[in-house]
Amino acid sequence: xxxxxxxxxxxxxxxxxxxxxxxxxxxxxxxxxxxxxxxxxxxxxxxxxxxxxxxxxxxxxxxxxxxxxxxxxxxxxxxxxxxxxxxxxxxxxxxxxxxxxxxxxxxxxxxxxxxxxxxxxxxxxxxxxxxxxxxxxxxxxxxxxxxxxxxxxxxxxxxxxxxxxxxxxxxxxxxxxxxxxxxxxxxxxxxxxxxxxxxxxxxxxxxxxxxxxxxxxxxxxxxxxxxxxxxxxxxxxxxxxxxxxxxxxxxxxxxxxxxxxxxxxxxxxxxxxxxxxxxxxxxxxxxxxxxxxxxxxxxxxxxxxxxxxxxxxxxxxxxxxxxxxxxxxxxxxxxxxxxxxxxxxxxxxxxxxxxxxxxxxxxxxxxxxxxxxxxxxxxxxxxxxxxxxxxxxxxxxxxxxxxxxxxxxxxxxxxx
Length: 416
Known about the structure:
alpha/beta; Rossmann fold; Arc Repressor Mutant, subunit A; nine-stranded mixed sheet; two-stranded antiparallel sheet; 44% helix; DNA-processing protein DprA; DprA; DrpA_SLOG
């Protein structure tokens, strides 16, 4: 069993571009994933500058800049990399790093662009729970490739204390998106998240749950069976190593990944202050479409949704079907939603004169064309010209003494 320092030294001496990721590189990123909380701007920049192996070597040796060492603090002397990797392997998980071919580089590039706008002075930077910083590594549980599942993916998020209406809509969206070959990404929570995941699974489609704890833990515990099903065909994803607890601040940090890994975010239900709203705002900052399902104006669970629609800066789009969602995130011209089907009526397409004559017809007693002409405000010849077409359309009938409205057709199977 080699020590962390030995693996790092070996990785530092190994030639770059040799194909497979060196175990020392993976171990360095495993150490970073536990040593520093995700979303830290300065540490991510430091790792990008010197590389993960050199960053860990300097941090462990105490030669890194003081400001960088302060971000690690007391964790610098700890090394749980081998137990973390073994624990991941035991539950069918793996550590995916930026050096892997499976890394979703295209999807996460928006985070790289966003973090470039962060100031150099730490006190002027965004709060860690709000900063749009790329992940150091991702712990992934499940058989699918992360880059392939996120290539065509949509985030469906919303309230934990959801209504029956919200869960129904989320389930339908998840099912319809799954049927059309799109991956549903959510947070695995109770309420809207769980309904969206279950909808996708019901369509026998993979789905991704981005967790705020280790991928070997079920939080909430009541969704344990759901997480097991997700891991069979989809993926459980986390920035935190196995065994890590779902601390409150980690949910806020996690939201940026849900927004970044997907082509757009759909908010089904959200209170005036909610994590779903935070995810939507992060999606907007990353240049991803934000979509909102409307709800009753009397429902507190739809206040956040309606506020997103009212916020011109967010530019949210109202959606009610999966087809409308795909139109917003899909390829221009190829994924257009079909027009809404409206119920037809025999009156559709009638000319102005025909519509006026039809409105002039009585219900019971038949009247003469002359009387219809007076009521409709047109010439008798015009009445005689449109009556045959109205009769063929079964809108009017001749009684023997005059014209009247035809009775509505009886439904099939009704008694004569």
